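in:
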């Protein structure tokens, strides 16, 4: 029995829509109830929010396209100013008009111009007898525009006196949108994250035709068992599934195992999935490089990536500055004499020091340090004598710009600037080699 039912739309279209939006039937059913029939006035504005890759954009695009509802779809990141956004809405309305052969240039400087031109565009398309939907994706960008843009979109139906519904898609909650002066409250709707069962069902639909559905479903189950705790992004998981499936099939292709021999298949794919864990979200290497690496049986560190620590190139003294900053961040001030002076004399280890040195400083995180301490450690670890020239200070600024160091507090402190080292121990070991 189909989950989607609505008297205003053909049953075949609803059945096709249900097959396109798996695990989102309840949200689509709710939207259809809000939309109503084509000629009915819908809610003036709808606010849909949820985490990234929860299906908000895909569901809205699929719903409006499958049911052939008149709509305008605009990404607010691409059209980042109010003028670009308003003009793009008018251009899409004009280009989809059946009686307009060529799109004319649109100039819209103010909100009043938009309301006037919008009413003309709706009249030219003869949309007075059905609802027009304006979908604004990444709607959080509206907060960076003029103060009247968001309230105007929320009550655009009232301003234009037309049958229009504005749908806002965002990853943040409505409370972070609401202006201080108040505005028309939209109908809010939440898209929850996909559960592991939903991800299993969605990813299993993409099985290759040369293999059975059960075989690919078992592979997806193994993939989610490894990656679900660290990655729940559907797009990323789909990319990982396509990238590693060839390696999973190798024993079957060579004739060493059949499709039901899950133990052999798991032992073959396990080391490669562990390597793939290092590239989740980072994209340190391309897909073609990763496939070549799997074929050769190498390590990810052998290929140069965007953030591979072993391939970071820094000037000579910047490397020593970074090492000195790491030592200053993770070593207590009282140990400087012991570590960096040759004739420091006898240092008593009191009970206080023994008690507090049991906890690793790496677990506590980096501590801020002043500039003079950084330079003092630098002078002690560099073999030759270093003069405190402008070149040294400019390299410190460059390390802050590269986010290898971070400045703590204000720049105009009386006791000078303070810094923190933000890189890991593995990074410092690679630099120190």
């Amino acid at each position: 029995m189909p989950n989607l039912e609505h008297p205003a739309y053909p049953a075949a279209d609803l059945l096709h829509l249900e097959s396109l939006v798996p695990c989102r039937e309840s949200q689509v059913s709710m939207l259809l109830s809000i939309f109503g029939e084509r000629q009915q006035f819908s809610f003036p504005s709808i606010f849909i929010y949820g985490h990234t890759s929860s299906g908000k954009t895909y569901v809205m695009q699929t719903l409006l396209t499958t049911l052939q509802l008149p709509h305008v779809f605009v990404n607010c990141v691409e059209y980042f100013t109010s003028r670009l956004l308003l003009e793009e809405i008018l251009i899409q309305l004009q280009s989809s008009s059946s009686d307009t052969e060529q799109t004319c240039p649109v100039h819209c400087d103010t909100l009043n111009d938009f309301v006037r031109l919008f009413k003309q565009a709706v009249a030219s398309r003869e949309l007075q007898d059905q609802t027009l939907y304006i979908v604004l994706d990444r709607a959080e960008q509206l907060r960076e525009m003029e103060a009247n843009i968001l309230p105007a979109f929320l009550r655009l139906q009232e301003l234009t006196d037309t049958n229009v519904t504005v749908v806002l898609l965002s990853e943040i909650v409505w409370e972070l949108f609401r202006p201080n002066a108040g505005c028309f409250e939209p109908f809010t709707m939440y898209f929850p994250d996909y559960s592991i069962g939903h991800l299993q069902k969605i990813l299993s639909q993409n099985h290759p035709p040369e293999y059975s559905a059960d075989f690919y479903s078992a592979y997806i189950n193994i993939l989610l068992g490894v990656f679900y705790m660290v990655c729940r992004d559907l797009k990323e998981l789909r990319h990982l599934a396509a990238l590693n499936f060839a390696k999973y099939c190798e024993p079957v292709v060579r004739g060493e195992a059949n499709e039901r021999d899950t133990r052999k298949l798991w032992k073959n794919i396990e080391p490669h999935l562990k390597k793939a864990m290092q590239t989740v979200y980072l994209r340190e290497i391309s897909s073609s490089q990763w496939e070549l690496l799997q074929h050769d049986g190498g390590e990810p560190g052998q290929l140069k990536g965007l953030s591979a620590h072993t391939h970071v190139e820094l000037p000579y003294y910047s490397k020593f500055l970074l090492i000195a900053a790491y030592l200053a961040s993770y070593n207590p001030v009282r140990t400087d004499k012991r570590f960096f002076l040759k004739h420091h004399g006898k240092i008593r280890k009191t009970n206080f020091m023994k008690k507090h040195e049991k906890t690793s400083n790496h677990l506590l995180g980096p501590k801020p340090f002043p500039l003079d301490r950084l330079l003092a450690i630098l002078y002690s670890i560099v073999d030759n004598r270093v003069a405190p020239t402008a070149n040294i200070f400019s390299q410190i600024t460059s390390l802050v710009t590269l986010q290898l160091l971070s400045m703590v507090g204000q720049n105009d402190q009386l006791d000078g600037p303070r810094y923190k080292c933000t890189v890991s121990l593995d990074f410092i070991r690679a630099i120190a080699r």
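note: Residues 196-308 form one domain.
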